[in-house]
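Hi R.,

Here's the chain you asked about this morning:
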Amino acid sequence: MEQKQKRIGIDLERLYDRSNPKIKIEAETLAGVIVKRIMELQDEYDVALFRGFQNLLVKLGLRKKGFCFHWTQDLLQTIFGKEWSYFDFYWAGAYVHGLREHNVVVIVKKGDSLEKGILMDPWRHGGRLYWTDVARDHYPWKIRPLPSPLPTTEPLFPLE
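And here is the predicted structure, written out as tokens:
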């Protein structure tokens, strides 16, 4: 866990061109929050072996949560519960309203666009966090608008 947290912190820090001890501290803190929350969600969702099986279990009512939008929503709710001076956050979706719809959290340098961010995707590898630059990923990510205030109990984008 510590290695992953450290690598995420370094990747978040590199969103800024210059080194700044305050940015480094906030990046490391944010990485810790993300890694810790994903570990909690793994237990809460009772994650299956792989994402397709988890989705099936949720559809059948054998698991309460585990779709990609659950991961995104719960992670954003945790992140938005804290003050961040150097980072902004997006809910990004690809193939929205289609069979291949996918959702992730994107972290950017304060004021930057989605395309310059780093995505956090715990769903892609069955509860194990995957992260990469948005620009390097194969999904066509677009910003999804967030309701204000962010709800704490209902899905932001309920299944229809």
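One quick note: Strands lie at 87-94, 102-109, 118-125, 128-133, 142-144.

Cheers,
M.
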